[in-house]
Design goal:
This is DUF4878 domain-containing protein. It contains 5 helices and 4 strands, in the order H-H-E-E-H-H-E-E-H. By secondary structure, it is of the alpha+beta class. The radius of gyration is 20 Å and the shape is elongated. The mean pLDDT is about 85. The chain has a 4-stranded mixed sheet with strand order 1-2-3-4.
């Protein structure tokens, strides 16, 4: 009798675990929703707004960081230095989850001038994440 109860309990526990597991596309959607809901409280030097957009069929998330910097040569070099540090910090703090990258999600991150032109574009994927964390 106790064996049957244990087997039934185990079967129920296994079914609950399988049902609660999320696939990569669901995790992508949840990340984008969560990121955008907390974007108003995001703090970083020169960043005025950040947003995320998910591309489910491409397994890609686009992160945009809008700044108050003018598009000029001195700000381009400043943006290059700041952006790598910002992304590294976000990965370390799990704001860009390594888990998603390891599951094949690519992050295309853009650091934009005040006129929405691109200062820097970084692609974060399985190959580039270790280089970014150096």
């Amino acid at each position: 009798m106790i064996n049957k109860i244990i087997r039934i309990s185990f079967a129920i526990a296994l079914m609950v675990m399988l049902i609660s597991c999320k696939n990569t596309k669901q995790k992508l959607q949840e990340y984008v929703t969560s990121y955008n809901s907390t974007a108003a409280s995001f703090k970083a030097d020169d960043v005025t707004l950040t947003t995320a957009r998910g591309y489910i069929n491409d397994n890609k998330i686009e992160l945009r960081f809008e700044t108050n910097l003018k598009q000029n040569a001195s700000n381009v070099s400043k943006a290059n230095a700041e952006f790598s540090k910002l992304l590294k910090e976000m990965i370390i703090e799990n704001q860009i989850p390594k888990e998603l990258v390891e599951e094949g999600i690519q992050f295309d991150a853009y650091f934009l001038a005040d006129d929405n032109t691109v200062f820097v574009k970084e692609i974060i994927n399985k190959e580039s994440i270790s280089e970014l964390l150096k």
